[in-house]
Model the fold of this input.
Amino acid sequence: MAVIKFHNTLSGRKEVFEPITAREVRMYNCGPTVYNYVHLGNLRSGVFSDVLRRTLEYNNFQVTQVMNITDIGHLRSDADEGEDKMTGALRREGKPLSLESLKDLADFYTSSFLVDLNKLNIERPTIMPKASENIAEDLALIARLEQKGFVYSTSDGVYFDTSKDPQYGKLGGLNLKETESRVGQNPQKRQGADFALWKFNSELGWESPYGKGFPGWHIECSAMSMKYLGETFDIHTGGIEHIPIHHNNEIAQSESASGQSLANYWLHHGHITIDGQKISKSLGNDVYLKDLEVKNISPLAYRYWLLTSHYNTAANFTYEAVNGSQAALTRLSSHLSSSLSGKISEEYRQKFLAFINDDLDTPKALALVWDLLKDPQISEDDKRATILDFDRVFGLDLEKGNLPEAFQIPAEIRRLAEDRQLARLNKDWQKSDQLRQQIQENGFGIRDTEDGYKITK
Done:
C-alpha cells in the first residue's frame, strides 16, 4: 500500500496519513457562506478539496466528504460583532427579514455555487448540510458545553469561555495575545478571545432556551461535522485565514464537549491574490468564473492554473497566466484525440503516485505529463491511457476531448447564457425564454442539464 503524506497544520509538519478506519476516510471541508456569488478565491477551496478526495480515491480509499453550506450565523467580524452576512444580504436586496426570505436567498446563491462546481468539474460532496437545517444540533452541543461549565451569557449572546480550555489556540501555534488584539475587546466578554455560541436577535432567528436568535458560525461547523462524521474524524480542510480563529474555535468547543480530538489532520490552502492582495469582496478586487468565460477562458483552464501551484502556497492571479494555462490545456487535449485503446504505463504511474501522495504535489504531477508526452519509448495510445488515468486526480475532464470546441463559443453568447442562467435562478421564465431565443438567433443552441447549461453550435 502506497504511503501518503500531508502537511498537518496541527503538528506543523508533514506526516504519514493513517486513517481511523482502514481504507476509509471521513473528511470535512469548510463550504461557502451563501450571501453572494463565490469568487475565484472561494473556489480554490473547492478545487483543493476535490483534488484531495480524488487522490484518496485514486489510492483506493472510500471517502465520505462533508461540505457545509453556511446560510445563517456568519458575522462580518471575527470579534462576533456586526451584522450576520445573510441578514445583510436580505437588506441589500430589499427582501423582508424572515426565515422564508432567508431560505430563498440561500437557495439562489447555493444554486449558483453548484453551477460553478459543475463548471470546474468538482465532484459533488457526499453530504452538503445547511446550517439552517441543523439548529437542534447546535443547541444540543451548546447544552453539553453548558453542563461542563464552558458557557456564560452576556446581553448580546451566549459565549464560550476560552480560559476554561488550557489547549485553546493549539492549531498553528496560535499566540493568544495576538488573537485577543485581532478580535478586539467586548467589555462583557471575560476574555477577548471568547466567542459566540448563540447570538440574540429579536428580528430574525429561532427560539431557544437562551432566547431568540441564531447560532454562531463556529458552533455550526462543529455540530454538522460531528453529526455526519462522528466526534473524531480523519481530515478537516479550509483556507489559511480560518486557522487563527474559526478552526481554533471549532477545536475548542468540539473537544471540550466530547473530550476527544475533533480531526486528526488539518490541511489548509493558501490565498489567491491579485497584485499581491487577497481576492476579497470587501476590497472590490473579486473575480468570478463568469468574468473568465466572457473573455473566452474555460473554467477548466482556471482549474489547470490552480494545479500549477502547490495548494498551501499563495498564487497570484492574472488573466495572462490563466490564458497560458488554457493554451497548455488545449495542447494537452490535442494529444488525446486518438480513440484507440492503450495501456497505462506502470513506470509513469508510480512516479505520478509518488508526487500526488507527497502532500498533493500537483505541480510536479503536471510536469510529469509533459515528460510523458515527450518520451519516445511510450506509444501514443499508452500515453493517452496513462494521462487519462492521471486525470482521475487532475479532474480536467480530458476524456471528453471537447475543450477546443468549447473555446469557440463567442464571448457574447457566453454572456447571454450567463444572463439566462441568472434569470432562471431568479425564476424569471419570460426573460429566460427571451435570452434563449437570442442565443438561437445567433446560431447556437442551449440546453439545461443537472450539471448546468450546455451551449452547442
Observations:
- The chain has a mean pLDDT of 90.
- Residues 99-119 form the longest helix (21 residues).
- The radius of gyration is 23 Å.
